[in-house]
Specification:
The chain is α+β, with helices and mostly antiparallel strands. 38% of the residues lie in helices and 14% in strands. The protein has six helices and five strands; from the N terminus they run H-H-H-E-H-E-E-E-H-H-E. A five-stranded mixed sheet has the order 2-1-3-4-5. Helix 4 links the parallel strand 1 and strand 2. Helix 3 runs parallel beside helix 4 and helix 3 (53-68) runs parallel beside helix 6.
Length: 219
């Protein structure tokens, strides 16, 4: 009877542990939500790990692209992104794109093409509707207006609190700006999508202002 009771107790503890485990497995981002932060921003930060201008810019442009082609996201969209995204903090833009569109590197529906300027092509895989998006000069200026300190694992937040507060303020500004002030959207046609084509340039149109983003720092 004692052995049976012990086994029952152990099984109960194991079951309790399994029930509580999933809530403890997701990493906690370096982020303090404010009442004014939209719900989508919380999801972006949960994926990326902290609040920064580049990841928010990627999310805003991704959401605008998804809306422009009338896609639901995840499995009916393909995104080709040009830009100077070889390394952080600029490459954090791609994290924002993944959250906002559901197109991911793992599903091979998000493609990155190295370039000096930022441009997106978003395709609705069901309808073929395609949009090209480019950041406005105002967004490029914001992304190039600061320098971020690299984050070091285990380093106290107080060591870089001032810089973090500046980056978070800038990120929240980008999150709150009207869409027309941060991105230009052009519908380029309803042709059937060709998943084999990943172009290095979309239509030969580039904005000289966009190159300044590569000099900016911050994710």
């Amino acid at each position: 009877m004692i052995r049976s009771a012990a086994r029952a107790l152990l099984c109960g503890l194991a079951t309790l542990g399994l029930a509580q485990a999933p809530a403890d497995q997701l990493p906690r981002p370096d982020y303090q939500r404010r009442p004014s932060d939209p719900a989508w921003l919380v999801e972006v930060v949960q994926f990326h790990g902290h609040l920064g201008p580049s990841v928010v810019a990627g999310a805003r442009m991704g959401m605008a692209g998804l809306l422009a082609v009338e896609a639901k996201g995840y499995f009916d969209v393909e995104v080709t992104c040009e830009g100077p995204f070889a390394k952080p903090p600029q490459s954090c833009f791609l994290d924002g794109l993944q959250v906002a569109t559901g197109a991911t590197l793992g599903k091979r529906t998000l493609h990155w093409v190295p370039a000096d300027r930022i441009a997106l092509r978003v395709v609705n895989l069901r309808s073929g509707k395609t949009a090209e998006l480019r950041p406005t000069a105002a967004l490029v200026d914001l992304l190039a207006s600061f320098k971020a300190q690299p984050k070091v694992a285990g380093a106290p937040r107080a060591n870089h609190q001032g810089a973090d507060e500046h980056l978070e303020a800038l990120a929240r500004k980008i999150a709150a700006m009207p869409e027309k002030e941060i991105v230009t959207v052009t519908i380029t046609g309803q042709a059937a999508p060709d998943r084999e084509k990943v172009s290095g340039t979309f239509s030969g149109q580039t904005s000289p202002d966009t190159a300044r983003f590569s000099a900016g720092k911050g994710s």
